[in-house]
Structure formats: C-alpha cells, structure tokens
Amino acid sequence: MVTAQAAAAALRNYREGLPVAIVRGLRRGLRKAEALSKTRYMQRKDSRGPRIDPPNPPPGPLGIRKGNLARTVKITEIRIERRAIIGGLRAGNSQVRYAGVHEFGGNAGRMRRVRIFARPYLTPALLDPDVDIEDEVRKEIRRLAMATLRGVARVNL
C-alpha cells in the first residue's frame, strides 16, 4: 500500500522531472532532424564531375561538394525559460557564411551580383513527417510518468 505522502512525493518528482523529460525528447527529435537534413535535403556531388557543376535547381536538394556546410549543422543549446523550452538547429560559422543564403535565398559573390535561390535544408527537415518532435517529447514524458507512477497504484487516506 502506498500512502498519500508517497503519492505526493511521486507527484513532486514528476513535476520536477518534467522539464528534463521535455528537453530529452526535444533533443532526440532534433537529432533526427539534424541527420535528415544532412542525408535527405543535401546531396553529395561526384568529385569526378566537371570543374564547374551546373547549379542544382531550387526544388532539388542542396548539392554538397566539400561537406563544410553539412559539418556545421548542429543542435542549438536547449534552454528552459519561464513558460517555454527553446531549441533548434543552426548551420554555419565564421568559415561557412553562406548557410543562410542557401536556406532562405539571396545575393552572393562579389558585389552581390549572383542571385542564389532558396534550397532549404533545415526547415524541411524539422517539418518532415518522419521526424515528429512532438511524438519524441510525448515518449519521454510517458517514460517519466511510468517511472514515477510505478508502484503507486492505490493511495491510503
């Protein structure tokens, strides 16, 4: 038999563990999206091809030549604020400044003369039906609930 105090302690542990479970689920979902952005939405180009490859059209995946951009795709720091848990994917660094141009489109090159059309790789990966971030968070909360409530079946008053 479980006492009311034990049930209250289990509920307190559940409330304290809830943000941790949400962060774990969010991190797991973002890892899946990160992997998907590098595999499905970026395509490796053959190094034996012509010296100047023809540009891949905007609906198609982003072409990878050296893999510098793919190596910079990382999960941002997941932080807990008052009423929100915030995390996401980011790409680019000081050496790879063209990450945003590929994601959103824009002008590049000397004097910004070259127009690059958007070939997003992060946004579709986050919205992909194969990566259900909410489902990953639900799984972690369910796991926390099962671990917390295991053995707390009846309460004596």
What's the structural blueprint in terms of helices and strands?
Layout: E1 2-3, H1 4-39, E2 42-44, E3 62-64, H2 68-72, E4 74-75, E5 79-80, E6 85-86, E7 89-90, H3 99-104, E8 106-108, E9 114-116, H4 123-127, H5 133-149, E10 155-156
Parallel strand pairs: 1-10, 2-3
Antiparallel strand pairs: 4-7, 5-6, 8-9
Short précis:
The chain has 157 residues and is of the alpha/beta class. It has one domain (2-156).
Number of helices: 5
Report the portion of residues in β strands.
15-25%
The helix/strand series, from N terminus to C terminus, equals: EHEEHEEEEHEEHHE
Write down the overall mean pLDDT. Answer: 83
Derived structural class: alpha/beta
Strand order of the largest sheet: 1-10
Oligomer: single chain
Proportion in helices? 40-55%
Number of separate structural domains: 1
Largest sheet data: 2 strands, parallel
Q: What is the overall silhouette?
A: elongated
Rg computed from alpha carbons, rounded to a whole number of angstroms: 22 Å
User: Tally of extended strands?
Assistant: 10
Low-pLDDT segments? 49-53
Query: In whole angstroms, how far apart are the ends?
Result: 11 Å
Structural description of this entry:
By secondary structure, this protein is α/β, with parallel strands linked by helices. Helices cover 44% and strands 15% of the residues. It is built from five helices and ten strands. A two-stranded parallel sheet has the order 1-10. Helix 1 packs antiparallel against helix 5. The relative contact order is 0.23.
